[in-house]
Amino acid sequence: MRPGSRTRRAGFAPHARIAAAVGLVATVLAATALAGTVLVARPAAGAPRGASGARCLPSLLRKHTGMVHIDFWESMVTANGTTLRRLTDAFNASQHKVRVSLVQQRSYTTTWLKYQAGLSNGQLPDVVQLTSIDLQGVADSRSVTPVQSCMAATHYKTSDFIPRVLAAYKLDGVQIGMPFAVSGPVLFYNELVLAKDGITSPPRTLRQFVADAEILKAHGSGVGLKLDPWHLETWLASANLAFVNHRNGRRGRATKAVFDTRVAKKIWGDLDQMVRSGAASTNPATGPEEYDNLLGIGSGKYAMTIDTTAVLGTVEAVLAGGHYPNVKLGVAPFPVYSTKVRGGIEVGGSALYISNRQPAIDQVASWDYISYLDSTRSQAIWAKGTGYIPIRKSSAKTTTVKALWKTSPGYRVAYEQLVGGANTYATAGAVLGPYTQVRTAELNAEKSMYQSGVSPSTALENATHQIDQILAQYDQRIGS
Among residues 122, 110, 34, which one has the least CA distance to residue 76? Predict the structure, then answer.
């Protein structure tokens, strides 16, 4: 072992499908067992959520003479994974203090399940990539050093970041995670079909979305509607309305769902009308049918759909192969609830967290790496290689991103959505511990509306009642 280095911890790097399957099953079972008892640590009385007591100490790395090895559990695949490896290799070559090893988990779900299991078995990384819905769970585990500590210790400036992107990963005013791979929902449409059917511009609002769907249906196509609870939350945010109480869970732990309002009834009522009239068809957001809404545009079944910008690179690559000559892809902003209300589009994607279960010097090394990934240049490279949104305003001004937006203007849409609009607790997104269960309840209510004829008002009432129970059970489990 080299002087100043430490023994590497075993990472999850399967080399065969059987090994991967066995590892995932074990992880799921371990996480399930934990969830049945106490998944998270009990917070200290009066302590702000996410406050771990750990401090970032940059002097440790400056004085260190050896190499610090850190592991990064990341969740990227295909082209996104290739770009991340390029950036990591560049970081490793740029200095002689820190070496980062990527440990690919292949999905956010796998990463979160394995991280939860690691809270019990001690197998945790130095840096982990988790989605926005995992924020409260991570904070409640009290297993991370808030990046706010490293920002303060290094006098890190944040004025160049898109404010809403930072806000998405704050709790009680403290920056817990560092945003990295940021996406947003946009409207995908076939310009050729809309023009043929007399629709001169893509819909800007939900009302126009519904009206255009009826026009498309009359001409033989329609709308692909993915069953994704994120969309309801985004429509609420676009109307500047919170999803849960206590300022969307950002100034106190959320205890009640507050979305059963006139606006939400209108949102689900409009969507239900589209499905009942045959102007829209639904498909799951996960599993083998999760891309049916996009494939439907290629086949001519649909002319419009809503999906994440994270798929834009893949969609453009498929179209470039000439498989769908009857499609001219258009990308437009998410059709907001109303242009009369100044809300905003929620942040999607993921952030990076620093484990406080590793030595203090590892934590500083982790911050050094995270700072590199979020630099102006790295974010420009990341945006070009993946289609994710550059989270720095200076990255958007680089020749790299300008060239990308010139050749593929669809990438610019999601960036402008996050720069524009209001920056409020509603648009920052909700913070919930049991977010996965909450979205399942939300999804089940939505399905009951489309598939079983339950009215939108009853479906919303059922969803809020079940979510209130889920929140209460979670809070009881962690002792909040």
Answer: 110
